[in-house]
Protein: Septin-type G domain-containing protein
Amino acid sequence: ANSYVGFDTITQQIEHKLLKRGFQFNVIVVGQTGLGKSTLINTIFASHLIDSKGRLEADEPVRQTTEIHPVSHVITENGVKLRLNIVDTPGYGDQINNENCWDPIIKYIKDQHSAYLRKELTAMRDRHIQDTRIHCCLFFINPTGHSLRAIDIIVMKKLSEVVNVVPVIAKSDSLTLEERDAFKQKVRAELTYHNIRLYPFDTEENDDEEIQLNERIRNMIPFAVVGSEREVIIDGKPVRGRKNRWGVVNVEDETHCEFVYLRNFLTRTHLQDLIETTAQIHYEAFRSKQLLALKE
Ligand code: GDP
Ligand code: MG
Structure:
């Protein structure tokens, strides 16, 4: 007798539904002005998403990033639609008095959780809630080669309580490879010392392969990146890169910097997990706190 009823097609049914809806991925970039935040975002998502002044269009007037500013894009690859929201933030910690300069960023992240919760609690809620919750915070570290600034530690700690934080060493072409690796180790030691728990988190659901992958990522963080919106010629071929006093840096060459590792991490290996972790850990923590407050 043929007992096959065909429920294994459920994976295709789910895929069809997901493809039709598309995916939403929201990233925020945080760090001092001039560390190359806008440039890196443009480098990751290839086309000119936001130019380095934070303008939407080339013919818009030049504007410094003075406020938190989300920009939306739709990217399609092989029929898969990714709606990408990138939230540029004004460089924090640029002032003489940096007290509470991180508040607007934390507030922005919490406001998205709050908006989502409000929609969830609405009786006649939409079947599909528009998701503006931030799935990943790229935190830009100044490539000093010394310690982290005290303010960076405070802000990373605050951020890691509400969002998946992924630290990167900005403009790593200003360090030699030895300096870079020493600095990476130093930053990791400081993060551990200050008890800052960063993404990725292991859960019981993870299989051995995922646990190993996460371990590799933890050993690589902070990603030492170089961004560029221009092409330079290397061996007669145009590549995304920068000229500096030591020669030419090919952004996509893994022996030059860790840009490719960061891009793979964001777009290939951890996209879904960043989205899921946001919902299951960060949003859930926010939600239960809010609901508890309502009961009191
Ligand atoms: P933001 O203020 O953090 O958004 O910084 P921008 O992306 O506007 O970049 C500030 C300046 O740094 C620009 O002149 C960029 O060309 C330059 N820059 C960006 N990324 C890099 C990098 O990886 N290495 C070097 N050397 N310069 C960079
Ligand atoms: Mg900028």
In short: Strands lie at 23-30, 69-77, 80-88, 136-141, 165-169, 223-224, 231-234, 237-244, 247-250. The radius of gyration is 21 Å.
